[in-house]
Write a structure and sequence with these properties.
The chain has a single domain, classed as Four Helix Bundle (Hemerythrin (Met), subunit A), CATH 1.20.120. Helices cover 52% and strands 2% of the residues. The two termini are 17 Å apart. It comes from Streptomyces mooreae.
């Protein structure tokens, strides 16, 4: 049975500020991820209906770690204990431990998003990342904040599309 997941409002079509447009769409997609996962059974969150084998809850954990890696670890240069926490080993599949509930992973995701928002609010779009994965490359090799935000935006857009498919296969939920 198909049921509709109501979309949130996109940022206003009149925006001209790159900062407001990028941060507005990042929040739009962050919300879309949570809306698409809300109401799924624990079994559907933890298991895959796709040949690649990724599970929706593991994708949420992956996006939380992406936020942590790009903005805390990379852009701000903060010490991060486990920036690749969605992997048992790299390369490998995303994982969620059996003791991690949807509420736990959702809280971790929301904490990383809040930290990202705070970092972005204190910076300028042309500022360069402090590090790249714990190493300090030459200035010209460090991405700008605008590049990082655009990279995050495309990552979210792609994975929200993946969640569209996973949710429809799980329980018929469709929506933007």
């Amino acid at each position: 049975m198909v049921h509709r997941i109501e979309p949130a409002a996109e940022p206003p079509v009149t925006l001209t500020s790159p900062y407001e447009l990028l941060t507005g769409y990042l929040d739009f997609y962050r919300d879309a991820v949570l809306r698409k996962l809300q109401g799924m059974s624990d079994d559907e969150l933890r298991n895959s209906r796709l040949p690649t084998g990724w599970a929706p809850l593991a994708l949420l954990k992956h996006l939380a770690c992406v936020e942590l890696r790009w903005l805390q670890w990379g852009f701000s240069g903060q010490e991060v204990e486990n920036p690749w926490g969605e992997f048992h080993e790299r390369p490998g599949s995303w994982h969620v431990d059996s003791g991690e509930s949807f509420a736990d992973v959702k809280e971790f995701f929301q904490e990383q998003c809040a930290r990202s928002r705070a970092i972005v609010a204190e910076a300028r779009l042309e500022d360069r990342a402090a590090t790249l994965g714990g190493r300090v490359p030459a200035e010209e090799d460090r991405p700008t904040l605008i590049w990082i935000l655009f990279h995050l935006l495309q990552e979210y857009a792609r994975h929200v599309g993946h969640l569209d498919v996973a949710r429809e296969l799980a329980d018929g939920g469709i929506g933007e």
